[in-house]
Amino acid sequence: MRDLIIAIDGYSSTGKSTLAKLLAAKLGYIHIDSGAMYRAITLFAIQNRMIKGDTVDEKALIEGLKSVDIHFEINPENGQNEIFLNGKDVEKEIREMEVSSKVSLIAKIPEVRNHAVALQRKLGRKKRIVMDGRDIGTTVFPNADLKLFLNTSAEIRAQRRYLELLKTEHPATYEEVLENITERDQMDSNRKVSPLRKADDAIEVNNGNLSPAETLEKILEIIREKFSDDTGTQ
Ligand code: CDP
Hints:
234 residues; alpha/beta; Rossmann fold; binds cytidine-5'-diphosphate
């Protein structure tokens, strides 16, 4: 059976992580949420007062990165791979709007990206991984076995994220969420290093009208077609 690297990229809140989680569980692979790494580094910068408005103290952050430990651990209660920042599970905290509103500022700093990409490649060394993000198929794993690019309208994406945040301690309004995802898409697509774009050989999937289970089914079909001889997913 051939082991795969599966890259899932796309705009904010297109359901990349949801799909990546379901797909990894189905295939018995590890899911790595690369966005969680940029969010954890952003949380670190916020906690250490390295961000003032839209200005980041890059020098302090780059120096600080040397003492930052970011790793993932499977939570035995839900089977999810959760992110730890310096020994603390920050899986929930990094999804709050305070982090969302700053993360694209942090993710465009080249040294931050180098740091995160090195970690991501290390985690992919043994294959059997589903990684989601913005530049996985273009920069992190340009030779990934399967590249997917998810897309949906900004309104549908905002509605999904709004409903998700409603269940947390710090909800936001629909308008705030829409503004945040539109702003991040813009910054992510226009930054100098590894901008968000579809890899030439990625398969684009519009999941606006599909539930998570339907999206998974569609992707499993693609996998069966492409790798039916060697993944054992039939
Ligand atoms: O969940 P959502 O799609 O809204 O975002 P995320 O995947 O958690 O990523 C948060 C932010 O991290 C993005 O808006 C990007 O600025 C950055 N990011 C990146 O630059 N490269 C990646 N591979 C993943 C995320």
